Amino acid sequence: MIALWHELIDAAGAEGYTNLRVAGCPTWINDGVPGAERWAEYEAQVSECFRGRRLIKLCQYDRRLFSPTVLLDVLRSHPFAVVQGAVRANPFAGMASARAERDRRKPDQDLEDALTRERAARVAAEAACRRKDEFVAVFSHELRTPLAAAVVASALIERLPSNDPRAVTARAVLGRQLEQARRLVDDLLDIERINTGKIELARERVDLAALVRDSVAAILLPTHVFEIDARTAWVVGDAGRLRQVVENLITNAMKH
Predict the structure, then answer these.
(1) Helix ranges restricted to H, 160-238
(2) What is the SS3 string spanning 8-50?
(3) 21 and 53 Cβ atoms separated by less than 8 Å
(4) Model confidence band, residue 55 (pLDDT cutoffs 50, 70, 90)
(5) What domain range includes position 89?
(6) How many domains does the chain have?
(7) Is residue 139 included in any domain, yes or no?
């Protein structure tokens, strides 16, 4: 239809007509014509088609025949309006075409947004899998060390008499390595508790100096020489968690 309008305008110009006017009364909107629901978009496109042409399109809308919704769409689809006999620029013009363009692009935009979310979720999932693999590798290495030492100590205990000094040392090594393995498992369980929000913390008065001394004594071998210069310092916290932090710090310092 718009192509036909262009042909008619060009034909009228070829015949010497320089000022053209076309009038219409779109009562067909109310007749249930197929596609009538998109009439505002069509009107906006026709108005754009006439832009820059020496032609006036005059549309008449009887307020008694059209609903308020239709009349609002009329304002949005016509660049000028006749108000009290004078032609005035219509500030609402262009809204229909802009809305039609948004509606046209919305499915594509929705699809693009969905693809963007899917890509972001995939990247996050891949990163989480990498972190999990790295954690499992590190944890396996950390757990293998005390378990290997415990196996060696157990073998010595089985072969040696109970009163042999080497058996006594092996039993001490076995106890320490099993305790280290227990702490590693506790750390793993704590991570799960933190992720699920189920970790519980006690609140009690704790002497940090005494806690540090006890932690060092529990980890270091009798042959280690160490000196602790710590003054009594009372804090309120979870003694078990604080001891866990101190022991992890000491263990890492011994390794690295």
Answers:
(1) 165-196, 208-219
(2) HHHHHHHCCCCCEEEEECCHHHHHCCCCHHHHHHHHHHHHHHH
(3) no
(4) low
(5) 2-93
(6) 2
(7) no
